[in-house]
Amino acid sequence: MRKATIAALLFALPLALAACSGGKPDAAPQLALQPILYFDVTQNKLYGSGCNFVPSNGGMGAVFLAQAERGLIKVDDHIVDIPLAPDATPLPQGAHTRYAGPLYSAALTPVPGGKPKTMGVITVFPAHLVIADAKRQPIYDATGDAQCKPM
Description:
Number of domains: 1
Oligomer: single chain
Number of strands: 9
Radius of gyration: 20 Å
Helix content: 10-25%
Order of helices and strands: HHEEEEEEEEE
Structural class: alpha+beta
Shape: globular
Distance between the termini: 74 Å
Largest sheet: 9 strands, antiparallel
Strand content: 35-45%
């Protein structure tokens, strides 16, 4: 009887641990995007019109730049260029909704029902950003604001 009890406990232990960790024992790692700072823009010549995405819970720095021909993120202190996807739809100032490359893809979409604000040449709207890895598994998902302006 004692062996059966131990066996049952050993069988149940991984299930209990999975429940304590949110039930996602094999969850994909999250991508740690860094803010793209003025130094990054000047050093890497990232000038151009487009939209800058700032997550609601991530400070004031943009973590994604959506431009006419590319999207840009900063990972491990390196700027990563994500080419424009062929099925992208336009956003203000030459930006687009989708970018896709060999390492990452990105989707920047307006939040349904969100109210855009225009201040001169700048348009700001609530947005949702999803970054996926090469296997198209989401590794970054955030809501925030997109600020679109000429550069």
